[in-house]
Design goal:
Layout: H1 3-9, E1 17-18, H2 21-34, H3 36-54, E2 61-68, H4 69-78, E3 84-88, E4 94-98, E5 102-105, H5 108-120, E6 126-133, E7 138-140, H6 148-162, H7 173-179, H8 183-191, E8 196-199, H9 203-209, E9 215-218, E10 225-226, H10 227-230, H11 234-244, E11 258-259
Parallel strand pairs: 1-11, 7-8
Antiparallel strand pairs: 2-6, 3-4, 5-9, 6-10, 8-9
Helix pairs in contact: 6-8
Length: about 260
């Protein structure tokens, strides 16, 4: 049995009340007057834990994912996953495809635009999730310097799709969007060491959304750090303290606090 549970059993006086978050915060306020050294120790531990939580985001690019409220809650619990997507086809026909990763936007306005699209079918509010990704190995298709091997592989797949008589020597912009859904192309890109792609949406989409930002396709969803899942605040500290109060070293005569579990 840990010392604070023993303290409860023996009905010892409490200086840090762990019975609720509000009580814990009130205890910290009292420590300003009664034991500033102890409060400093708690403050240092809080900063240590918060900085450790921030570490997964350091050196990464801030991006955004648009979704519905219901899906956001599931994403926060389970993480992002590659799911099915819908693409507009000829005469408004909708094609269902297997997404080759997760899509993120560098502009929250664009992410919300896609979030609204997803939420409308579920009659829910659109939500934007702040994410962080290592973009050092992202294939930048917005650049004019696209690797020749990437172009060669893409062109081969495009010509195969368009029939034996197709002998295109360049890849039209619309075909780059098609390639984002082709497993053969994505696997080839992965083999070249890339972890995702960066590209622009259609001019119509950018105009309707009011954004000029690029979209990222991240192949492995586990490479995406969701900010809300690594944010460390006082509630997180309270939950940590409930299980780790033994880290405190009290001076002689200083009575330990209580907790309820």
């Amino acid at each position: 049995m840990s010392w604070y549970k023993t303290a409860i059993a023996e009905e010892q006086p409490c200086n840090i009340d762990m019975s609720s978050l509000e009580s814990f915060l009130s205890s910290l306020e009292r420590l300003k007057r009664t034991n500033p050294d102890q409060l400093k120790k708690l403050s240092d531990k809080y900063e240590e834990l918060r900085n450790a939580k921030k570490e997964p985001m350091q050196g990464k690019t801030k991006l955004f994912h648009g979704t519905s409220t219901k899906r956001k809650n599931k994403i926060l619990e389970e993480g992002l996953r590659a799911t099915e997507g819908e693409r507009s086809g000829f005469m408004g026909f909708i094609n269902t495809v297997e997404n080759q990763g997760v899509f993120l936007a560098e502009d929250p306005v664009l992410a919300r635009y896609f979030g609204v699209d997803r939420a409308e079918g579920l009659s829910q509010e659109a939500e934007v999730i702040e994410c962080y990704v290592d973009t050092s190995k992202i294939l930048d298709l917005t650049s004019i310097q696209i690797p020749k091997e990437i172009k060669r592989i893409g062109l081969q797949l495009v010509n195969e799709e368009n029939g034996s008589k197709s002998k295109s020597t360049r890849i039209p912009k619309r075909e780059w969007w098609w390639l984002m859904d082709q497993p053969k192309f994505i696997e080839a890109v992965k083999l070249m060491g890339y972890t995702g792609t960066k590209f622009y949406e259609t001019s119509g989409t950018l105009k309707d959304s009011g954004s000029s930002g690029a979209t990222y396709l991240v192949f492995d969803p586990s490479n995406v750090v969701i900010k809300e899942n690594v944010t460390f605040g006082m509630k997180s500290f309270y939950n940590w303290m409930k299980n780790n109060m033994d880290f405190l070293t009290y001076p002689p005569g200083f009575s330990q606090g209580s907790t309820s579990t």
